[in-house]
Amino acid sequence: MINKDYILRLAEQIGYELSIVIGLRKRNQNEDTLIAIDNLLLKFTGMTSRFINSLSDEMLLQALSPIGKLNAEACLWIASLLKEEGETYDNLGNSNDSYYRYVKSLYLLLELLHQEHVAFDSPLYGDAKVLIDKLSAYELPSYVQKKLFRYYEQLGMYAQAENILFDYLEHYPEPQMLESGHAFYQRLQAKNRADLENGDFSLQEVQEGLAQLQRFVD
């Protein structure tokens, strides 16, 4: 688990560097912004934007986990800078490139929040929400939807997790996700009423959800 003070210090350092990037972008110096982002990526991660964006999201995550343990610092730098790169491509009217940067950024951030059990008062959750909102008009890749399902449960947002679960199963009725759905409801059965209500859920909805899962059983 990342030390809370360490996250705050790292966030402050990233925020300082990003303030320069954001300033360039707000002055519509978009090409200079992209160059500045690339320089920061190389400085703090040893990878260029071109290389990072040439990798699939899964391959990038593997590259950041060389011995099976996520390099949280590099992951956070990349997620933060890809978000800014996406914003810059939005400025340029290039929604295709901005979409892929946002998706990759969100994918890494959700994995970081899961693996490192980041404290719930961390501003990183706000960053994740910003990215989720930016991508709300798009259909997300299936592997990102899986991470969102896990993320919403982690936050205690059970109704949102259920929505992701059934939307996923409607499009990809995979046995693995079906098993994850059963495990999700079993965990919810162990919750007290107050916990469920805080997650906009109820024990009755748990039972109804389990029954609905039967639609996807061969």
Automatic annotation (TrEMBL):
It comes from the Bacteria. InterPro entries: DUF6483. This is Bacterial transcriptional activator domain-containing protein. It comes from Dictyobacter arantiisoli. The lineage of its organism: Bacteria, Bacillati, Chloroflexota, Ktedonobacteria, Ktedonobacterales.
